[in-house]
Amino acid sequence: MYRDPLFGITILVAIIAIVALADYSRNRYRSKKRSQSLKNLAKSYEYTGLSDGVMEFLSLAHNPVPTLMFLAQTYAKSGDSEQAIRIYLSILEKTSESKDKIPILEALGVTYFDAGFLQRAKNIFIEILKSYPRNSGVLSYLMRTYESMGEYKKALEVLDCLDELEVGSDTISSEIIAHKNYLYLMMVIDEDFLSLEQKEHQIIALFYQAPSLHKLVLTYLKTYNLPLFWQQVALLGDVQNFIDLLWGFPKEAIPFDLLQNAPSVLDIYRAKGYVRDGKECDIFELEVLRVLELEGGNLRGGIDFEYRCHSCKSIFPFDSYRCGACSELGTMDVILKLRRAKNNEIH
Question: What is the per-residue pLDDT across 134-146, written as a single tens digit (0 to 9) for each?
Fold first, then answer.
C-alpha cells in the first residue's frame, strides 16, 4: 500500500493543501490584525464631532469621500487644522476597508504634522508603514517628524530606507546625501556622550566635507569655541549669507590680524566703522553704511535681516535650515534691509 504511487501523490496533495490553508489563514489573520490596528488608531484620538450638515452628507451621499477629502484639504491649507482633522476622523469612522483607510490616514498624519502634533503624526505614519513599508511619501514625513522631535538617529534610519527605495536616481541621491550630512551634524551636536573636543573634531570634518553646512557649523562654533569660529570665518570667500552671524560682534572681540586675508569679512566691519582704510565694500548695503559712518553726521544707518528660501523664494523673519513653506533643505539667502539707526543704537 505504501508503495502505491497514488498513495504518495495523495499524501503530497494533502500536504500542499494543508500548507496552503495554513498560509491563507495566517495572511487573513495578519490582514485582520492590520485592519483592527488601523481602526484602533483612528479611534484612539479624541473626536468632538462635526456639524449636522457634514455628518448628514457623509451618511446620505453615494460617494462622499472625495468631496470631504477636498473639503478637509481646503481647511488644512487655510490653517484650520482642527476642522480638517475632524473631517478626516469622520471619514475614517465611516470607512471599513483597510486599503481605503490608508490615504485618509496619510492625509490625517500630514495635517497633524503641519499642526505640530508630532507624536500623533509619528504614530500614524508608523502604522501605515506596517502595511505599506515602501510608501516613500510617508517615509519622508516620518523622517521629518523624527527630525522635528530631535530624534536625529531615528531620522537617519528612516533616511536609509528612503535611500534603498531611490537607488538609481542621481538627483534623489544627492538630496539624500545632503539630508544625511545635515541629520548627522544635528545628531553630533545633540549627542550628550561626546566631549566638546570630540564634537568639534567631527563637526569640522563636516565643515570641509559639506559646504552647505557651513552656517550651521559656524553657528555652533560661535557659541562653544570662538577661536575656532574665527579660524573658519577667515577661510570664507562669499560672506553674503553669513553677515547676520558676524554683524553683532563688538570691535574688541574681533581678531582683525586673523582676518587680514579675508577682505569680504572686513567689508562687514568697514560698514560698521571698525575698519577705516578707505576701501569700498563690494555689497551695496554695506557700502551705504560705510559712507554714512565716514560722514559722521546725525544720519546713521542700521541693518535688519530677512531670510529667503533659495527654492520657493518665501521670505521669513528668522533663519532656518529647512524652509517652513516648501520644506526644502539648505542655507537661506540673507536679505539686508537698510534702515535709519535708532538714537540709542550702538554699532
Answer: 999 999 999 999 9
